[in-house]
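anyone else get weird line breaks when pasting these?? whatever heres mine. first is seq + tokens for prot A
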Amino acid sequence: MTKQESVDFVIKTLNQIYPHIPIPLDHKDPYTLLIAVLMSAQSTDVRVNQITPLLFEIADNPYDMIKLSVEDIRDIIKPVGLSPMKSKGIHGLSKILIEEHDGKVPQSFEALEALPAVGHKTASVVMSQAFGVPAFPVDTHIHRLMYRWNLSSGKNVAQTEKDAKRLFPKELWNDLHLQIIWYGREYSPARGWDLEKDVITKTIGRKSVITEYYKKKKS
């Protein structure tokens, strides 16, 4: 298969499996999405979705959030991990949103990435899911699958994002990045991977990855 045929196969297969794409993190507006995405760093969406209702019950907007101390926030979000950094970030960015953005989440990559504890991936998720701006946030699933599918070198997430944006049509980015995440979780995980169920990797996968898979299976 040519690279273009591989890309077309990925798009077609993902559309068949995921015609309707759920957003993994529960939220009701750009602010609650921003907080949920920030909390999801090195944690699972399931864990974050268990904790955000507890936090949002007390503070679901920047004005209520800054009434809490960093310690208050930390006590609530402790189970998601990295709570010292995340609680400082949540409090700090809420203050900046009030002081510089009228309490609203800004609709630009630059302004979002200038907020404490908000990196490029978090900004990309918010831009794409809250504001519908084309973006391709790369998480561990997308990074792994782009390599497995021989669509990226796997050097780093910045390179993977570049390759994804070059290969996939811009108007599909926002759906595709979510479809790939769901596919990675359900059919092509890092651990407990069954290639027989992973139709995309089985069809277009990197030869060395497939060879390695069968080698491990035999041993």
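and prot B, same format (seq, then tokens)
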Amino acid sequence: MAGVNGDRKGKKDDNGMGTAVYFLLSNAKLVLGVGGAAMLGIATLAVKRMYDRAISAPTSPTKMEPSGKRSWEEPRWMGSSQRVLNHDMKSTVSRSLQTLPTTSNSFEPDCMRRATGRGRSAAGETDLLRARMRLSLQEKLWEFYQERVTIPAEEQATARRAALDICAELRIFLHGKLPDMPLREMYLSGSLYDDLQVVTADHAQLMVPLTLEKNLWSSVPGEDTIMNVPGFWLIRRENLEYFPRGSSYWDRCMVGGYLSPKSVLGVFEKLVAGSINWPAIGSVLDYVIRPVVPSETLTLEVQYKTDRHLYVDFLPLLVMDDGASLIAKPHRLAAERHENLWRQSFRVAETARLRALDQEDGGCRCACLKVTKAVCKLNPALARLSASQLTSAILLLSEKEGDWTQEALADRFLQLLRSLVGHLEAGRLPCALIPKVNLFCELTPVEVDELGYTLYCSLSDPEGLLRTPYSD
């Protein structure tokens, strides 16, 4: 033991961990033999190395690697592979959030920080380096926006024309097949029509508004039921004693006294996927059209060019008296248990608010949203983050941050990443329009951990998010 203690003289204090390790190894041979002691030594030293790196992360937020690339020790210790955060790792992430940057100014190596105390000449050089680093992410974000995010106008127009052709065929078929079905005029919607679609024009929504009799149906908020799910609604059948079952066309889709979105989708699925001769229609339109199976909603895949595919979601829609839009898209985690729940859609209102804010100050909110959407679309580890979640996160950030000029894109992008990590750590992302709605309620704990880990690691190298596996 004396020899062990003597060898460690002058080394940095490690809160007793090193002493415990060397004591364990020096006595292991007496119990386990030479071979057992060797195996124990390898395992023990590996644990100590992880411990040393873990405790060093918060006190040493940045370091310079031999290549000159900046990184945080914590994400490097965690590893670069996609892995799930356990509770201890999540606690470390939460503590370390206090040391992470909030602006692109924070991306500077330790040597630059030390230089600030070397006199006025060194301070001027440091300011220059800081400015260069600040511009680096800004330039790469706008370059990414131009090369990867933006969709050529011709491609968007062609995709819209294909979606319009499908909409026209469905309208003709439904009106001819079921003329008594109470429907309002169908219309196309989605990010393809809001100039918020990114990377490729591959998705559209066909909204199919249903007409309900006001005296026969009423809406019940999800939080007012035993299920307690804000953001979802029940459509309850009323006055059955005066207007028996069959008085409304949609009584055929009633389950347990409520209008079931699953049953409504089933009715349209039999018609759209089972009755329409899509190969014949496709040959006339020079498209290849086929229903997507399986799908949580009714979706058509349209191949309108050899290398171009468009997915059209067929979405039954209810518009309430208060303006709330409810769509027949099931709860992702409890579709069977909550099969009567209609999902409230915030897309139109969120998009309108985002654009209004940008118009007021010439801001970069929409650009920030499109960049982040593209990052999530091109990185499989972030695919579970939806446009609605990202939009709400930006709207919430807009309430705290006033500078959304084009020159502040890098700062706001970093703030958005950091705020998403915080929301994931809390397991809650409030809807910007209705805060009681948790937009993370349909993510599993494993998905929350994986998203949090990926975004947390990206804070050490945000430019890495722009170097996607699919980049040219």
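btw re prot B: The radius of gyration is 28 Å. The longest strand covers residues 308-319.
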